[in-house]
Each structure stands twice: as C-alpha cells, then as structure tokens.
C-alpha cells in the first residue's frame, strides 16, 4: 500500500462503510451487490486480456463471448431480479458494452409490452431462448430524434396478407442500432404503415434478418456493420436496407394498433402508452451520469493523492498534486456533482416506480411532469458529466491519455448519452415546453403543483427592480437559502424566456418562429430549472442522514456544489438581483474554504463509491496507490512489444537509410 | 452537388477567395499552398486505406511508410523551406501524426542548437541521412512539466571518460517520447549531471538505443512502446529504462555547459538560451488551435446545411438544422473563435520571428513578455478549441460519433495540446506570475510598456464603487468599446488576484502558500488577460481589411466573438461594474441578431478555410454535401463486413442457442 494513500485514509473524518450503504440504499443492498461482484470477478470465464490491446474484430468477438457466458451464468446462479442482473452486467461489462445489449434493453421489453397474446406466445420463448437474437431498428441514416421523419415503409398487401418492407431512399437506411450489424437474426423495425392507400404513421414490425440456421442474411436484407466509432468498438452498430422484404401480417406488433386481414387499420386506445420506457431509460441515464463521474473522480483523486509534482515551497519535496488549490478546484466540485447525480438517480428511480404503479392503474396525471423532468435532467447531467470526465482525465496529466488510466474508455462509453435516447438540446427544449406551458397556466391564475409550483410565485416576487435596491435574501452559508436562490433564478429565467416569445409574437411572427427565435433563452431556462432540482434534491437527501460525521461531510459537498454553480453562473444571479457584488466575493472566499475543508476527506469520499479495482480497471485509480510499477507492467504487454524490432523497420526504415 | 449547399454558396455576401488569401497571408501563399497540397493529394504513394479500419500495428506501419516516403519526396521535389515542409506534412498526415515527428521537431533542432563544432560535424550528417533516427527523451513516468524533478542520472567516470546513464527508480523511466518505442535508434536524453561528487542539474546527452545494423536494443537499454492511448495510435510513444549504459564524454551536448576530461564542470553563459524553442512551439500550438477548430467548424457547418431534421413549422418540410437558433448558437461563436485564433496564430508567428532576430543579437528584453503570452495563450486557446471540437462533433448528432465524420480523430489528435508542451494550468499560472509582477511594478510607480501597459491604469481607474452608481462606458455595438471592456476586466481581475495574495500574506502565511491559496484567482486573471489579447488582436486585424464585403462579415464575426465572451462571463462584467443589467439584455438580443446575420454566410466562411476533401477526410464535411451515399459506401468497407457471418456466431452464439 502506498503510504500517501494510507495516510489519506487515516485522516478521514467519517465512516466510509456507512456512506457506501447510503449510496447503495441500505446495508443489505451493499452486501448483495458485493456478492454479485465477487461472483463475476472470481469467475475465470470472465478473465480476458485488456480490450485495449485487441483489434476491433477481436473486441467484438470477446464481447459476444462474454454475453453468451453471462446468459449461462445468470441461469446457473438463478439471478433473475432485474436490479441484480443490472449489477451483474455492470461488473462484467466494465467500461464497455455487451454485445447483446439491445436484445435485453429493447427487443425483449418491446415484445413483452407490444405483443398481443398470440404473438407473445410465439415470440417471447424464441427471444428468451436466444433462438431469436434481436435488436430494435428505429434510427435511420437521415433521421434521429424526430421520429415522425422516419421513412422506412411497411405497405400492406391484402392479396397475400403480408407487409412489404422497404427502405425507399438512402436516408431511410436503418443506421446505428446496436447488435444489428452481425449479431442479430431478428429486428423490431419501426416503419410507416401504409394500408388501403393511407399512411397511419409509425408501427413496430418483427423482421427476420438472417437465417436461423446459417446466420446468412435473408433475401432483400442488406445488413452490416456501420464501421468504427468514437468508442463502442465491441458493438456492431449496424445498417439495414430492406428491399421488398415480405413479412406475414402477424409480424406487426398488435397489442394496441392493428391491421385486419383486409387491410383495415384499427387505432390504438392511447398514445401515452409508449411514453413509459423512454422516461425509464432517461431516468436510468441520470444515475449513469453519477456513476461515470464517480468512477472518473475515483481515478483522478486517488492518483492526485500519490502523484507528486513541482513545488509549492522551494527546496521542499514535491507535494501531492491534490495539495494544489487549482487541482482541488478541478476535482472536488466534480466529486460533489457525482454525489448529487447519484442521489438524483435514486430519486428518479423511486419516482418512476411510484408512477409506474399509477400508470398501470390508468392514471397518467404525473407522467407529463416526469417526462419533462427526465428529459431535462438527462441532458443536464450527461453534458456536465461528459465534460467532467474529461476534466478528471486531464487532471491526471499525461497519463490520463493512456488507455491504462481507463479514463478514455469511460469518456467514449459515456459521452454518447448526450445524443442517444433524445439529443440533449431537443431534450432541453422539451422541458422548456413544459415550463412555458406551466408558466402560462400560472399567469392565467391556475395554481400549479409539483416541481414547477415555484412558477406560481413568479408574478408576485419577481417584479423588475434595479439590482442595488433589491433586498438581499441569500445567505451563502445556508444551503436552504441557496436552494431558494436557485429556485428564484429558475423562475426568473423561465419568465425571461416566456417574455422573449411574447416579444417575438408582437413582431407578428408565427408561434413556431417565436419559439425558435427564443430557443437560446428556453434552453437556459431549462438548465436553470434542472440545476434547481438537483440542488434541491441534494439538500433533501441531507435530511435523511442521521450520522453526524456523514451529515457533516455531505453538507460540505452540497454547499460546494451549490456555491460552485453560483460562481459559474454568477451573471444570472447578479442579473436577477439574487446576489450582490460583495456576496459574490463571499462566495469565492467560501468556496476556497470548502475546498480546504474537503481535502482530508477526498480519498475517503471516493472510496465510499466502492469500485473494486477489477471494475475500475485503471492503473491510476488503484486502491493501493501503487501506480507506477503497474503502469510499467501494463505497457510491456502492449502488442507492439511482442517483437523487439517492428517489421516496419525492415520494410521502410532500412531501405530509406540505404537510399540516402 | 447537393442543392442545399449550392444555395448556401449563392447567398454569400463576400468573396470567398479573397478571404482565403487573407488567411494564408497573401495570394502568392495561397497559390503555393495549393500546389503543395496537390503534389501530395495526387501522389499515388500517399493513397492508403482509412487508418480507422486498421489495427494499431498496421497504423504504425502505415505511418512509418508514409514518413519514409515523405523524406524521399521532399528531396525529389526540392522542398526545403520550413513553412513549405510544414504545409506538405500537414497534408500527408491528415488528422494524424507522422512516425518520425520528434526526429524533425526535437532531435535535429537540438543537435543544431546545442552541439559544439566537433559534435555538429559528427551528429548532424548522421541525423540528416537518418542513419541516426532520433527522439527527445525528457518526460519521465513520474515527472512532466516540472523539469527539475527529473531523476535520470548521468554520472561522469573520469577513469574511462564516460558518462554512466541510469534510471535509478521506477518513476525515472523515460515515458511518452514519440518515436521512442520502436522507431528511434538514438535519443537525446535529459539527465541530472553528476561529476566530482556534485549534481549540476539537467544536461542533454546523446544515447544510442539500438544497433544501427540490426535495430536490436543495445545492452542496458530497456525500450518499448507504452501501449494504446486516446488517439496517437500511429505513434510509438515509448519508455526507456537505462541500466548502467556507458556513453563517451563527447556525447554530452557541449555548446554551452561542458564537462572536461577530468570531470570539471563548466557552466553555460546564460540560462535564457533554451527558452526560444519552447516559446516557438507554444506559439505554433495557438495556430493549431485555430486550425483544429476551423476543420471542425467546416465539417459541422457544411453538414448542418444539408441535414434536415424535425420541424419548426408543423406540416412544412424538415428544415436545415442550421436554421435552428440553438444550432447557430453552438456553431457560429466557434466559427468566430476559429477565425480569432487563426489571426492570433499569425500574430504570434510574426512576433516570434521579430523577437528571434533580437535574440540572435543578444537582446532578450522582449522574451519574458512573449514567454508569458505564449504560455497563457497556448492554454487559453487549446482548452477552448478542445471543448469546441466536441461541441461541433455533438452538433452533428449520431453521425458525429462515427469515425467517418473525422471529428473523433480531430479531437483525440488535438486535445493532448492541453497537456504537452506545458500543462495548461501550469501555463496559466506562469502567465499569472508575469501579470502579478507587472502589477506590482505598476503599483510601485514603474511605467509598464507592451501588452500589460493597461495595468498602469488600474490603480487610477478601478476604484471600488457600487455597480449602479458606476458610469456605463460600454457600447455593445462598438468593437473598440468591447475591447476596452475586456481590458478593464483583465485589469480588475489581476488586481483582485494580487489582493488575494496580499490578504493571504496578512494571515502570516508564506509567499508560496499565499500564491497557492490564490491560484484560482490567478488562473482567472490569466484567462481574462488572454481573452483581452484575443479580442484586441481580432479587432486589430479588421483594420488591415480594405475590402468592404470582407470587412463587414469579419466585423460581424468579431462582434459575435466579443459579445459571446461577455455573455459567458457576464458575472465578471457585472461584478466589475463594466456592464449594467439592462446592457446584458442588450448583449443577448444583439447576439441573436448577429447569429441571424451570419446565417447566410456560414458555409462561405468555412469554405474560405479552403480544406480540400482529401485533407478533411470527413464524410459529413464533404464540399459537395453528398453525405449519405458516401457514408454508406464508407461503412461497407468496414473490416467487420469482410465476411457475412462473423466467426463469433459459430464460436459462441450457435452453441448458446443449442445449450438453452
């Protein structure tokens, strides 16, 4: 054990194990999580060479192997609880993806929820036994977030009672679905349904892609891998071009909408039914943002405690780089953010499960709010976390660039969450739509409830006044007061966005153009709303913490999170008169004090995330702090070191020398 | 040609070709650049498969091959002017690196400048004929930016008149030098010189690594590749462990410091001599930041003009995504930044060449200022450009993640500039040291000259006053007025940092601790200083533009750059009383107008960067806008598509299906 990191742990002022229980949701959950982790880590079948040393084809191969093993192991161990499966998977996947990911996340759930009874009986056993290896083909080369723009067609032919599936244009080729390129023999394809000469919009169809015996693509199916990407090397994101592929009528998923034998289209009872999965996945992503940032902070903070560099005082030994204020300022607010997002993730999960109960009872009343919240928070947290991972990586100096740090893998695996499941800017604008609608309701005298109830107060409290005459309400040492400031900022920015739309409308432009011409303000308002929610939930979490030591350190984190946000957006707080100039100096001063206060607890706070070395897979983030010897060992395994002299010497360099 | 992009070009209000000349520095330079580009692009020897389809070993192989070819070609064509060589290289390298990069950038220049006469006669011909393939081994596993911390030792043995080279610890192993792993047979090694029982600090030594005949590592030399990284796949960044390697006395580079036969150490005449290269490389990086951002903007803006998505007005066709205000707000300020950095790069280059003349005359007076400026601007521009590349990438939706967009390559190739040649935070603090020193001189009554002369005024102008009572000086429509505002902001933030140090000192902490405890403020002050310099230089450039159409569009860009910076740092401008709250609303409004104003010129502005398709190597950034058909073609070449059925199906999936 590196003595620096041992000393860090000795200096901690709280009980790390207790904090781990809080993050897991209870002591029993910690115990079970560790059991599952040990199952995977001690399993010789999951040992493999570092994926970074392999070619793309080898990485894909290794991922398929692991996925196949996992399926057998889960059955062997009888693990069937979704949360436990999720835990098992996140260990064996490491920072990467599983080859059959879409089969589990989209193919199976869609069958479960959108098959009618007969379909269920036929398809679910095929999918659960992996005879049908499936994916979900929605995105097209020219169409992403805007689903109505999808071009793939399913035209019903009553003569044969079949749908004829086509990719009528180059932009309509399905593009990006995971597992589509090489792995899947079936896909659920989203296509525009045409029947009796009319288009009825998007429906889901089960399309066989490859022979179930030979895995060779079927006639009319042009399918393949879309090529290398920024990360996701182990996944065969694919393309799919359909050329008059005929499928039987009962391959359209018919739990809700239907096409009858003669081609008559029957509408689904409610459009809200497909809402739920989306909300669930986005809520999960919020937790993943906390997870990715927590892993990155663990690596950067542990390494900063064993890395010595430069000098603060001349002549003295090189200090730990965590002693530099600039390093603390980079890492500690991100550490606070990681905690914040983990708590927000817990909250979203709880709300989702509560509301799911209501939905299954036919009560959709809370869904719009949750939908708006999950969209905005997904964007808010993934943007911050992505940028934060890169800050952590660069805080590790040169070694952050080495694949042995794991930080490049964490980044390229996480950053796509900014784009998939709803592009972030579009998500922010969806939340803004809800906020503006709520604002208008409040302005019209309706009493709002739920998270947007603060908009009720906006008319009363936010009269325009000059900055200096405004009474100063914020106490920079009091979290509750800061939550209030975030709330008022959000209220003010929603109001400003609404007024911008109003002003545009007065120029006699259309509603739609007024919206687009105010889009910058709308995104800003959503951002402020999400920031308020995060600060509020972090503060609320503190209320649940009884242990004094824990409460103290988490309060420091929460205060740091709130104050750093104020400093970063100080213009907003000054502009809206929520903060005075002298108070802003207090904020800066207080921030520095909080950094110093957190310093002795930094390593313990990342230890509490409880990532085993085998899961972090980072030389820099090792629990024992023995970084350098293991970095040397890792490097020697690099494929380029398999021979002392690379063949290129004989092929190019020696002839060059002879030529000159 | 895609009709959307044709229409964009027709709408432009200025002469693209003229702007290209300005960016190149004159019509003749444009002409010559294009000639050289054509030489490379039309050369069948430089055609190769997309590197993204190759394994790391194949990529390294391809890079060595290209470097060897380039050397022969440059001789064949008689290209020897450094600027023309640089141009030639930047074409054949694309977004990647050359295998022999360090040989040219560090090994040869160090020999030129630090050999004495006899050494020059021996080593330069060996290096110029590539018999000696060299690199520059400075960074160690545990030591980067802080050079004094390097541990490698060179101990003089007068008995044999040799230096004994050693890596005494694991942290002293040389780590990261490009070309060290497999390519080089020589390295210039920086090591602590020990002679006559005393350490005399760092000196440079020529150390043979591999046999010049067989390329096999020599006894005592443990050398290899450090393994895969975030980018730089084609470079063999290496490690080097020296175990009692003996080299003759004349392998120490002795132009300045010397060791005599008996071991007597002779000091060099001046320490400033090694300054120059560092300043030069950092200045180059500023230009590279403009270059990387310009390439990214070209890709994102062209793609945004042909990509249609979602809807603004219901029922109408999907609009070009460049019509969304949020898309404009992402891309146009970055476009303005790319122009700004290109102009700053031109300026730095001119200043460097002017001052180099002075230095060779023994006049070092301007060097400290240039050193401080190049350090800060290197950090300021590389941070912004790196984040900007990612914004461009994500503004392309899902396809930005595909390697066919080229944006992932541009990012991973550029982002290391934040860390190498001086870690950015350290660079910012170096600039801050110069600013604080200048501030103190001004406070003590000295009249400052040069770029920091604004600190002369600080005492007089920046008396604390309340925000509302301050007279409003800024005209948000006038660039000169905005330059002034940036200047005053910088002055105020330098003052605040100086006062923070002062306050710390009053708490009786040491100078060094006071500095560290004010580091956040110091970085902020440097940042404001650099921002001021960039805005000022952009405004100054406008003074050189005679053409009305060009002047108009560049003025719009400059104003956008300045106002967006103010919006992003609105807290600073409000806090320092340089802007009032109503003015801030004006800034927001004006920004939206500028976005709309730039919209018709956006494609033409990236066309003016004049990157040929072969250099951009981006399907999304194609000049003709025919994105989708070429994306499909690219994907089909993916190595995973070489077989219809991947072997993993037979190895894992079929057995899995049989098992369940």
UniProtKB/TrEMBL annotation, chains A, B:
Annotated keywords: FAD, Fatty acid metabolism, Flavoprotein, Lipid metabolism, Oxidoreductase, Peroxisome, Phosphoprotein
Q: Which SUPFAM superfamilies match?
A: Acyl-CoA dehydrogenase C-terminal domain-like (SSF47203), Acyl-CoA dehydrogenase NM domain-like (SSF56645)
Catalytic activity field? a 2,3-saturated acyl-CoA + O2 = a (2E)-enoyl-CoA + H2O2; (5Z,8Z,11Z,14Z,17Z)-eicosapentaenoyl-CoA + O2 = (2E,5Z,8Z,11Z,14Z,17Z)-eicosahexaenoyl-CoA + H2O2; hexanoyl-CoA + O2 = (2E)-hexenoyl-CoA + H2O2; tetracosanoyl-CoA + O2 = (2E)-tetracosenoyl-CoA + H2O2
GO molecular function ontology, one term from the record: fatty acid binding
What does the entry list under GO cellular component? peroxisome
- Annotated ranges, domain Acyl-coenzyme A oxidase N-terminal: 15-132
In which pathway is this protein known to take part?
Lipid metabolism; peroxisomal fatty acid beta-oxidation
What Pfam families does the entry give? Answer: ACOX, ACOX_C_alpha1, Acyl-CoA_dh_M, Acyl-CoA_ox_N
Acyl-CoA oxidase C-alpha1 domain: which residues? 275-436
Give the required cofactors.
Answer: FAD
What are the Acyl-CoA oxidase C-terminal domain coordinates in residue numbering?
A: 478-656
Boundaries of each Acyl-CoA oxidase/dehydrogenase middle domain copy? 136-245
- Predominant localisation class: other
Report if keyword Ion transport is assigned: no
Give GO terms for biological process: fatty acid beta-oxidation using acyl-CoA oxidase; lipid homeostasis; very long-chain fatty acid metabolic process
For this protein, the record's PANTHER family field holds:
ELECTRON TRANSPORT OXIDOREDUCTASE, PEROXISOMAL ACYL-COENZYME A OXIDASE 1
Q: Which family does it belong to?
A: Belongs to the acyl-CoA oxidase family.
Its name, as the record gives it, is Acyl-coenzyme A oxidase
Q: Give the originating organism.
A: Salmo trutta (Brown trout)
Q: Its gene? A: ACOX1
């Amino acid at each position: 054990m590196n003595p620096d990191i041992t000393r860090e742990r000795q200096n901690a002022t709280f009980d790390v194990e207790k904090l781990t229980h809080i993050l897991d949701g209870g002591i029993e959950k910690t115990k079970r999580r560790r059991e599952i982790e040990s199952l995977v880590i001690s399993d010789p079948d999951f040992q493999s060479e570092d994926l970074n040393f392999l070619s793309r084809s080898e990485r894909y191969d290794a991922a398929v192997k692991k996925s196949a093993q996992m399926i057998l192991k889960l059955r062997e161990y009888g693990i069937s609880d979704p949360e436990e499966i999720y835990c098992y998977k996140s260990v064996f996947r490491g920072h990467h993806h599983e080859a059959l990911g879409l089969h589990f996340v989209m193919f199976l759930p869609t069958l479960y929820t959108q098959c009618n009874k007969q379909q269920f009986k036929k398809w679910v056993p095929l999918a659960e036994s992996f005879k049908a290896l499936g994916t979900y083909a929605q995105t097209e080369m020219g169409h992403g977030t805007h689903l109505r723009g999808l071009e793939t067609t399913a035209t019903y032919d009553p003569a044969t009672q079949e749908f004829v599936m086509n990719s009528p244009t180059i932009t309509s080729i399905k593009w990006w679905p995971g597992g589509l390129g090489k792995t899947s023999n079936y896909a659920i394809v989203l296509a525009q349904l045409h029947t009796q000469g009319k288009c009825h919009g998007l429906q889901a169809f089960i399309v066989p892609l490859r022979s179930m015996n030979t895995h060779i693509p079927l006639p009319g199916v042009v399918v393949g891998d879309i090529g290398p990407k920024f990360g996701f090397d182990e996944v065969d994101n694919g393309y799919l071009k359909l050329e008059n592929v005929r499928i039987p009528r009962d391959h359209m998923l018919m739990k809700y909408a239907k096409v009858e034998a003669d081609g008559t289209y029957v509408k689904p009872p409610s459009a809200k039914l497909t809402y739920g999965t989306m909300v669930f996945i986005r809520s999960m992503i919020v937790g993943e943002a906390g997870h990715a940032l927590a892993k990155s902070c663990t690596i950067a903070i542990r390494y900063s405690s064993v890395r010595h560099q430069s000098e603060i005082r001349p002549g003295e030994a090189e200090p730990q780089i965590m002693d530099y204020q600039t390093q603390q300022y980079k890492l500690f607010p991100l550490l606070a953010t990681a905690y914040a997002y983990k708590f927000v993730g817990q909250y979203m999960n709880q709300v989702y499960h509560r509301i799911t109960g209501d939905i299954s009872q036919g009560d959709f009343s809370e869904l719009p709010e949750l939908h708006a919240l999950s969209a905005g928070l997904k964007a808010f947290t993934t943007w911050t976390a992505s940028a934060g991972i890169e800050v952590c990586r660069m805080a590790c100096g040169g070694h952050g660039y080495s694949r042995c740090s794991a930080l490049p893998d964490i980044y390229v695996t996480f950053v796509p969450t900014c784009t998939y499941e709803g592009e972030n800017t579009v998500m922010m604008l969806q939340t803004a739509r809800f906020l503006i609608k709520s604002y208008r309701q409040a302005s019209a005298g309706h009493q709002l409830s739920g998270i947007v109830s603060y908009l009720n107060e906006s008319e009363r409290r936010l009269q325009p006044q000059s900055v200096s005459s405004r009474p100063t309400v914020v106490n920079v040492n009091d979290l509750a007061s800061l939550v209030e400031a975030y709330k008022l900022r959000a209220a003010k920015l929603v109001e400003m966005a609404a007024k911008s739309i109003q002003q545009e409308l007065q120029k006699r432009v259309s509603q739609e153009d007024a919206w687009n011409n105010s889009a910058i303000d709308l995104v800003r308002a959503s951002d402020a709303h999400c920031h308020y929610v995060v600060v509020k939930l972090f503060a609320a979490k503190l209320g649940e913490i009884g242990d004094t030591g824990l409460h103290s350190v988490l309060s420091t984190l929460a205060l740091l999170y709130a104050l750093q946000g104020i400093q970063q957006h100080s213009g907003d707080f000054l502009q809206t008169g929520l903060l005075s100039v002298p108070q802003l100096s207090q904020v800066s001063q207080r921030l520095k004090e909080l950094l110093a206060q957190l310093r002795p607890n930094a390593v313990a706070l990342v230890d509490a995330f409880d990532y085993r070395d085998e899961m972090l897979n980072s030389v820099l983030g090792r629990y024992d702090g023995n970084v350098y010897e293991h970095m040397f060992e890792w490097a020697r395994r690099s494929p380029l070191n398999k021979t002392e002299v690379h063949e290129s010497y004989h092929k190019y360099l020696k002839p060059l020398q002879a030529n000159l």
